[in-house]
Sequence to fold (430 residues):
Amino acid sequence: MISRREFIKTGGVLLASGLGGCRKAGVKQQAKAHVVVIGGGFGGATAAKYIRQLDDSIKVTLIEPKKHYITCPASNWVLGGLRGMASLTFSYQQLATHYGIDVIHDRVTVVDAERRRVEISRGDCLHYDRLIMAPGINFRWEEIEGYDADVSTYIPHAWQAGPQTLTLFNQVRAMPANGTIVISAPANPFRCPPGPYERASMLAYYCQQHKPQAKILIVDHKRGFSKQALFEQGWQLHYGYGTNQSLIEWQSIADNPVVSLAAKRKTLQTDFGDHIKADVLNIIPPQKAGAIAHQAGLTDDSGWCPVEPISCESVLRPAIHVIGDAAIQQPVPKSAFAANSEAKVCALAVVNLLNQQEPLKPAWINTCYSLITPRHGISVAMVYKLKSAGEIAPVEGAGGVSEHTDPQSLYLESRYALDWYDSITGDSFS
Ligand code: FAD
Fold:
């Protein structure tokens, strides 16, 4: 078996020989095993950091186009008027200076799995020994005629936090006092299963204070949704849910999905020809893995990336690991918490593999908090284990949903939500 010292030397040879056709980038004299991470979100940032913590002889390069990452978690709180965008914004400074990660702000345009190298938009190439892909999501624009990336700048999905979050908030602020906000929620699987319903809650909280005659209609491509009983309980308590005066209405359109958009009229049309007119329209489109995962040949017919749970290694391309929303890790949901958890599983597996050791049997955790009002929080938590080589299963008796009804416990859940946000962003970005 090759020794670790020899392995590191060999890494240098690979690094020097695998390039051709594009400029070499970041090649150092002292060759080390090189892990490239694509995407500096919850998945990629955490994986990069933990690899360096586990074995600082491994060179880690993180490639992310944005200089500042804006978190989707807590972006619904902006819509409730509870937070500004600055408090959701993180830089990569700490990852670079404290953990010695090479951070390149650019977009990966090509993954060449055969030659184990990636090309970035300015034309440089980087060789890798292991590649970790965490590119998040892309949208299935083709599913709703008339809706695409350009239209989403003024009919926002706001499902990648940033300028669209503010566009949506500003549209709600500017709409008539008795206006209707329509949220189109996608079918499974999609990023953050409780997200559309927390969004409705936060918009209802805002409208209750500023536009109490308004209405929020959720048209849902599912027959039910995450934490439904807890959301509905909270909506009854605070927003008159189930009465004529309710601020929130939920309607399943699983049998009659939205098929097109008339953008100028802010009107959705369903398969059976029904029209749904809005003053403010928030379309959360159906989703798939980020574009670069498709280019790299990592996706299957579902549009997501199948992986070996034990190492997050792609079942389609060796030496490439996929984590976060882009990966199929069912029943683990697509959340920041899960991306962070998968990143740790992946980091440990990659370090072990680079040191000629077997990956360890992992466990995963997910918790999702949602706010119904600033003082009413709810949560769902679950622990998962490896059931067989390719299968993840929930651990019986672990986790569940918060079932409190007394105001003090609901208030405490809302505080835990804030604390969770601080600790997950701290763990991923500092
Ligand atoms: P991302 O965070 O999207 O990161 C992907 C990164 O990859 C991006 O920064 C992107 O720029 C980069 N990238 C893409 N393509 C390339 C390329 N070609 N080259 C280089 N870089 C690239 N989760 C929770 O756990 N709790 C919550 O309370 C919660 N609330 C949410 C609320 C909302 C409204 C939404 C929309 C989501 C929420 N989520 C929540 C889900 C969470 O945001 C995602 O699950 C999480 O961001 C997934 O992390 P990721 O690393 O897979 O993807």
